[in-house]
Each structure stands twice: as C-alpha cells, then as structure tokens.
Amino acid sequence: MPVEKGQCVLVEYRGTLEDGTEFDSSRGREPLRFTVGAGDVIPGFDEAIRGMEVGQKRTVTVQPDEAYGEHHDEAVQAVPRSIFDQLPGPGDVVTLVTPDGTEVMATVVEPRDEDVVLDFNHPLAGEPLTFELELVGLC
User: CA 136 to CA 9: how far, in whole Å?
Assistant: First the structure.
C-alpha cells in the first residue's frame, strides 16, 4: 500500500551534495521516523516518500526551495567581536541570543579586527540535495 499523508514511516537515507559529499545518513542509527505531511522533515524529502511502498528504494534530488531555501546574502552580517568571550574561528557554529531571548545559530565566515562576519543562513541553504531513500517500515 503506497504511503499517504498522515502515515508514520521509517526511512533509511543517505544525503549528498552535488559533488558527492555526504552531509547526513541514517547508517549506523535507527531509521528516521516521521509522520508524512506533518512538517517534521524538509518538504522535498516528505514529498519523495509519498507513494512509496515498504521495501522500495528511490533516489531523488531536492532543489533548495523544497529544502533549506536559497542562500540570502543579507543573512551574512558582521557583529562586534566584543560579544564573544572566546574568539571563534572560520567554520565554527555559534549560538547567539536576540534581545527577545530567541536563540539563533550562525556559521563564522571570518573573524576580523573589530568584528566577526557570521552567516545566519542554514548551512545547506542554496544547495540541491540528493537523497538515497529506502522505506523500511510503517510505525
């Protein structure tokens, strides 16, 4: 029976970038468990599972608009270096707290003399993502 919206599924997956670099995998862990259509996973992943049957495998490429969105240049901003107790390095992920108490994560692009350039985009924003999927069960 094909998977439909509202069903809980168990999925083995491997996610890669265009150059073949693996960014995530369920290998060595429990299968990913989620309810189709509940917004638990990115839209393109959710859509790729619909219509599959237990035991079926599929490879799909999800475009940025159905994954983590496009990369927005305006989300790359400089913040005062003084807000950090310890200076982070390029590629480090930092968590900042906004005045209203919301935590936001950013990736350090470049520490400079007076400030630190941070990228507030999701690390996979702007990337087409390829997933090797296997529907291993229903829950």
Answer: 8
**Are both 46 and 59 inside the same structural domain?**
yes
How many independent structural domains does the chain possess?
A: 2
- Give residue 92's domain range: 73-119
The answer to whether 49 and 135 have CB atoms below 8 angstroms apart is yes
Quote the pTM value: 0.85
Let me know whether 47 and 88 are in one domain. Answer: no
Q: How many helices (H) and strands (E) does the chain have?
A: 1, 9
What does the pLDDT look like over 112-137, one tens digit per residue? 999 999 999 999 999 999 999 999 99
SS3 content of the chain, % helix, strand, coil (to 5): 10, 40, 45
- The residues facing 131 across adjacent strands are 15, 60
